[in-house]
Design brief:
- By secondary structure, the chain is mainly beta.
- The chain contains one helix and eight strands.
- β4 and β5 form a beta hairpin.
């Protein structure tokens, strides 16, 4: 599932799993903050939609960059969880 920005704004914070390249498995849980955008002194967090593994990260994501609405933050592939265990 693709995670996109809900609005245009300046990136003020990026989760470490989106920036580190050494980690082979980059996991995210539902509701985890991926990035924080600042728009007119108001901050908006882009959250993980479900539990999964980050397959791909959008290009040019770094603190201080202004991004437009609908730009790709990352692609999260769902991980199946067994509720019986």
């Amino acid at each position: 599932m693709q995670v996109a920005t809900p609005l245009s704004g300046k990136i003020t914070e990026i989760r470490s799993t989106l920036t580190t390249t050494e980690v082979k498995v980059r996991q995210v849980k539902k509701g985890d903050t991926l990035i924080v955008l600042s728009v007119m002194k108001m901050e908006t967090a882009v959250l993980g939609p479900h539990d999964g593994v980050i397959e791909r990260v959008g290009k040019g994501l770094r603190v201080g960059v202004i991004i437009n609405e609908g730009m790709l933050v990352c692609v999260v592939m769902p991980v199946e969880t067994n509720r019986l265990w």
